[in-house]
Amino acid sequence: MNADVAGDTSSRPADKPAQTPATAASTFTVAGSATESHPDPHAAVSRFARKVAHDLNNYATVIRTYSELALAELPNDSDLRSDIAEIHRAADAMASYVRRIAKVSRQAASLHTLADPQRVLAEIVASLAVSSASPRVALDTAPDTPVGELTVDHDWLSESVHELITNAVEASPAGHAVRVGWRAVSIDRPALIGRTTVPRGHWAHLRVCDSGEGFAASVQENAEEPFATTKEGERGAGFGLTCAFNFARAHRGHLTRERIDHTTTVVSLWLPLS
Predict the structure, then answer these.
(1) Is the confidence at residue 9, as pLDDT, over 50?
(2) What distance in Å separates the CA atoms of residue 224 and residue 182, rounded to the nearest whole number?
């Protein structure tokens, strides 16, 4: 993998400082908590998302239950079976939608544990390979810049990385691979990457590279907000970047987006190593 960091920065393999759960917890601030002096709009969005997820889940449960009962009682040759089956399929899609909303509603890292980000990534890549007829995700490794373990919410990390990779796969043309990989990076001075400034320091850096057309102008300004998408149907839920953005923010990290040489889109997750 190319170890250069885009933007005005000088990077080198990081000598990872020691990190302990106590250190991470002492510097962690819960978004929207009483420790903040100003209202947090993201906390308000999270509360709204939880309410929407709760209501939709109730509706989906009722629709699925009654459609299943109807299918069990209808004769196999009934003209209504195809209609009821479509209702059941729509309820399943709603349930999937609700699960994605639930991810967005998370406000802060609720459980800090030691997690191996490279192992998490390898498991996600392996699962995508099994579920796809033509695996399109290539795992980049940088043995000279290992990340090591991070003190994070393990499940939230896994969800966020999975969302970033899924977004990239869906954006890439047929036959083009998505390349992903972690590395440890030191930044000597603040680096402007895309529209986001990453401060100086030691970082665990996940790069997700695809050869799609990049972010449409209609979502450039608000790509990390819920429902911001140009996709259609369930694929267009608009929650992928929001989940990753909220995760990064809760862990004192950053999410960056950049376009390289008009051919490659790179979405990066930056998590502090100290």
Answers:
(1) no
(2) 21
Residue 197 token pair? 């400034």
Measure the CA–CA gap between 183 and 124, rounded to whole angstroms.
17
- Residue with tokens 């393990």, as numbered in its chain: 154
What digits encode the pLDDT tens for the residues 195-209?
A: 889 999 999 999 999
Position of tokens 């030191």? 186
d(CA 133, CA 128) in angstroms, rounded, equals 10
**Token pair in block for residue 143:** 């043995």
Question: What's the predicted TM-score (pTM) here?
Answer: 0.62
Ramachandran class of 97: left when φ > 0, alpha when ψ lies in -120 to 50, beta otherwise: alpha
| Distances, alpha carbon 76 to alpha carbons 57, 63, 79, 86, 166, in Å | 29, 20, 9, 15, 38
DSSP-derived pairing of the beta strands 137-139 and 178-187? parallel
CA distance 240 to 218: 17
Measure the CA–CA gap between 167 and 32, rounded to whole angstroms. 28
Alpha carbons 149 and 251: distance in angstroms, whole number? 14
Q: Find out whether 107 and 45 touch, Cβ atoms under 8 Å.
A: no
Q: Which residue has the higher pLDDT, 101 or 24?
A: 101
Helices 154-171 and 117-131 cross at an angle (nearest 10°) of 50
Residue type, 52: V
Dump pLDDT digits (tens) for 126-183.
888 876 655 588 888 766 788 889 999 888 899 899 989 988 888 888 778 899 999 9
